[in-house]
Amino acid sequence: MAKVFTVPEVAMHNKKEDLFMIIHGKVYDCTDFADKHPAGHEILLEVAGKEASEAFEEVGHSEDAKAMLKDLFVGDCIPPVSQSNMSLKLLRARHAPVPNIMMKLISDDL
Ligand code: HEM
């Protein structure tokens, strides 16, 4: 199963020597790729540790660029706390047990 990251966890990887980003809910480790990025590593640093879907799409990256993502994938990102709390309310409304991952999110938020 893919590793699951929270947004604050990804945010810690915000340096050239430790560079993650989130694109469409997936987390990519671009540390080694940064120096190979055709437009340079500086531009990747701007979105290091952050949500980068819009930046990635705006460039109009080629299919080759999109295919490269597969090798950089390290896990899935669960939504920011506000959205998760909404999901939690929905779960409670259905009397479903709260999954452990949600409990972790809530305790992280305290
Ligand atoms: C892991 C994610 C990324 C991969 C694998 C990737 C890959 C590539 C590749 C292969 C190219 C060459 C052109 C192409 O094939 O489309 C490229 C160009 C470029 N990328 Fe990325 N890229 C990534 C993320 C980003 C992000 C987040 C930004 C912006 C913040 C960005 C900005 C650019 C720019 C400005 C170019 C030059 C476009 C041009 O010359 O027309 N890239 N990238």
UniProtKB/TrEMBL annotation:
The family this protein is said to belong to: Belongs to the cytochrome b5 family.
Organism: Exophiala oligosperma
Domain Cytochrome b5 heme-binding, residue spans: 2-78
Compartments reported by the entry: Endoplasmic reticulum membrane; Microsome membrane
Name used for this protein in its record: Cytochrome b5 heme-binding domain-containing protein
Membrane topology reported for the UniProt record: Single-pass membrane protein
PROSITE patterns in UniProt: CYTOCHROME_B5_2
GO molecular function: heme binding; metal ion binding
InterPro entries the UniProt entry points to: Cyt_B5-like_heme/steroid-bd, Cyt_B5-like_heme/steroid_sf, Cytochrome_b5
A GO CC term assigned to this protein in UniProt: endoplasmic reticulum membrane
Pfam families for this protein: Cyt-b5
Keywords on record: Electron transport, Endoplasmic reticulum, Heme, Iron, Membrane, Metal-binding, Microsome, Transmembrane, Transport
